[in-house]
Each structure stands twice: as C-alpha cells, then as structure tokens.
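Dig into my protein:

:::
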Amino acid sequence: MAEDGSDARQRVGRTPAEAGRTAAVQRLIDLDGRDELTSAHVRLVAQALGRSERTVWRWLSAAREEGRYGRVSAARFTVTPEVRTLLALWGGNASRVHAELAERARLDPASGPVPSLATLHRAIRRDLTAGERAGLRQGEAARRVHDVFATRPPVHRNAVWEGDHKRVPVEVDVEGELVCPWVTWFIDCATRVVVGVAVTPHTPSRDAVLASLRCAIDRREPYGPAGGLPGAIRVDRGKEFLCRTVTVAMGGFAVAVVDLPPYTPHLKGTVEALNDAAEEMHFVLLPRYLHRQKLTGGKSADPDAPALTFEAFVAGLLDWVNWWNSQHRPAGLDGRTPLGAWMADATPLAEAPPEQLAHFSLESDGRERTITSHGIRWHRRDYIADWMVGRTGTRVFIRHLPHHDDVIEVFTADGTHLGSVYLAEAATAEQVRALRAARTASARRLRADLKAAEKLRRERFKAQTVAGPAERSRAPARGEAAGELEGGARRDRHQLARPGLIPHGPAPEHWVQLVDPKQQDGRSDED
C-alpha cells in the first residue's frame, strides 16, 4: 500500500489539456450555436491545451453528436466494501487481499474476474485516503494522524484551564519498590502557564486532583503568582476528574467542569501538548526511562541504572515546571515566556477568599462529633491538638482531604475553622510537648485569675465583727482622698441645687430691659 511518485502523478489527475477540455469544448459549442465559430477559435484552443487542431475538432464532433465534453470513462476496478473488510482483516496487506479474492474466484467462478495485483494497488491508492489506509493498517490512532483540526480562537488568561493525568514512563524508587509515578496538572490555555501540579506514586484519585486545584487557585506563597479562579475547566471523561468532590468544590466557586467526550485528546490539545513536551524535554533524560532505545532482544542498554528517589523525582519535575513557566518560550506567545504572557495580560483576576479556601478540597461525612478528654474520635482512632485543651463537650464537625487521615480539620456548626488535629497514636514528641504545655498554661492562667480575685476580695473590705456597712480595708492615699472628697462634694451640690425654690426679684432700674417687638409695634399703632 505504499505510494511512489509515478502512482501519485497518475492519481493527481490530468494534463492541463485534459483538465481544461470540458470548459474549452463548452465554449466552442456556444460559439457554434451563435454561428460565430471559426478555425481561428479551434486553433487558439489547440495551442492553449497543447493538442492538435484535428484533436480539438474531434472533441467538438463528440460534443455535437454524443453530448460528451470529456474523455470516455473506461470501466475500472474500484474498492468495494468487501475489499475494505479484507484490508482490515489482513492489516492493510494488499497482496493477501488479492490472494483471498483469487481463492474466492476459484471456488466460485460466478463471482467475477479478479483484478491484477497492480490494479488492486492502484485502486486502493485512488479510492482510499491516506488516513483510511493508515487506519486499516494500524488502527484509529494511526488514522487520526492524518486528520485536520480547527484551532480555537485566542482567549484571555484564566478563561479556560485544561487538566489531565499522565503516567510518567520513568521507574522511581518508592520505599524500595520501583513504580511509575503519575502527575496531575492544570494549564492555562491562553498563556500556556502551568498553574497547578500534584505528583503521586500510584494511580491518582480525587485527592491528587484537589491538591493540584488547590495550588492552582491559591496565589499566595508558596504558590502563584499565576492562578486564581478560571472561567471553566476542560477535562476528559474520568471518574477522578468528574467525581462529586471535584464538581462540588469547583461549583462552590461557580466554575464549570466541562466533560469532554471520551477518546478526544484534540479537544484539550493544550494539556496534551504539555504531556508530550514534558516527556520529550525532561522525562527522556531521567534514569530508567522506559521508552529509551533498546538493544538486540529488546534489552535496555543500562538495565542496572540506579533509580531516582521519589523525592528527587518530584523536586526535578517542579524545577522543570518552573523552567517551563519562567524561561521556556513556546510558539504562539510572541517570544514571551508563559509567565511573562500571563503577567502581561491585563484581564482582571477572580480570586477565592482565604476563608473559603480553608474549606476547599476537604470532604465531610456530615456527622456531628463531641470533643472528649481523648480528643475527637474518627474511624476508631483519636485525634488531638493543643488548641483542644479546655474545649471538651464542644460539638464540632470534621473535614478531611481524601485518602489523607493523618491530619483532619475541625469546624463549628456555623463553619468557623477551629484548627487542625493530628492522629494521637502517631503524635510526634513536639506535638505531645505542645499539648502538655497548653494544659500547664491553662492551669497557670486559671490559678493566676483565682489568686487575683482573692486578693481583690481581701483588699476591698475589712472583716466585720458587728453588723454594719462594709468598710474598705486600705486607707486611701492623700491624692485619692482629695479626689474622692471633691467628687462627693460635686455630687452633693448637684443634688441640693433647686432653681425654682426662691423666686427672682425685680430687676434693678439701671439695667437695660429688652422690649418685646410686638408690644413696641402696638404702641406705635396707637400713637
């Protein structure tokens, strides 16, 4: 099913004379119908198409008598559905398909003649596209290589993110076992900046997605500066991405999770390009890369190469992501880095409030629990923290990151975040010391309050041996006594003041007395 140059030229079509024959003959017939056709017209057509005048007159005669403007189409062999099925059966091997057709004709002579192998090859190249031939030979993935895809129009930053899982083809040492880690990341489609990354040594689940989304949304240290809330997130169909936790988490920020049809990687081409770039530019350099060239027999050139530790692999991947964002200059960004393009975009950002991020990526079973002297009971284990000292009897709710039960978060019924608690049986020495210190500090604080109250009580009143008003036990100082006497005298004068008790006498005659304007006007009228 290979295509050489001669077959390609034969399939492309015709010479200029053959391609323009129909139009030229139609023009000559039109001139003939108006009695304007002359030999000069025929000579011009012959020169233009590279044919003799006799040939052009023969074309004109065929058009007048048979109504035919082109060549006589000879009967030829074409690819039928039966041939397509046989090609799929034999993996695109035309020779085996020809042998199958010959065997069927031998068993059933009425089935018709069998074309030659060369004719079959020409028909396959003529009637099937390159994508169809590749698909019949190697399957759907090979057919897609020959497809044509449209490009989405440019958008602003954070308009759309794309997310995906990728199994890294590198063996990494995790507690003495060689495993291939997975990376879960999100990329901004407009600027190509990677906003969130999470790595797991096993097949990722919703915890990896939530962790990656958390660092993508949060722009505070150690994340950012790129991030914020996107307009939408495109993911392919998968239980990890479309689980209820992720949908609810992003729905709380009014961010739609777009579920793409399965097996359509071209619909999220930005993150797929990131997957390919990471393998070609980073993973291929790491030891124990699985897709490296093989020796005879499929053996690796260095089968005993030491594997990276999981910690070293994660550190190297994060360094590469930082290089991709701040130094690499992908095509389509006008020579800028992804982070530079993101910072240059003036589109306003939508950010999540810090208090709302405290609830993000956490799950809750909805059950109310009580803080006891053993802490909080969850999954038959106790969780404690120093801030819980003195809070026994408090009704709380817990939230946790999926698959991470070493630390959980505690909230009140109204959603107030009280703090984190850790597994009691796995508490470190520092956590135990902090708990003891909190208990000691609480006891010391109460003891100081009680002593202060007793001291205040003893200093305020004297002990009485007979019934009478309470007396202060401490003699006031000179300044305190003067201030108290002055204040008492002021209060007494205010209490004794009675303005209406003694009536005022007549005003002296030498005082200037005011005259009512109404009375004055009345006197002037009388006068």
Summary: Residues 1-15 have pLDDT under 50 and may be disordered.
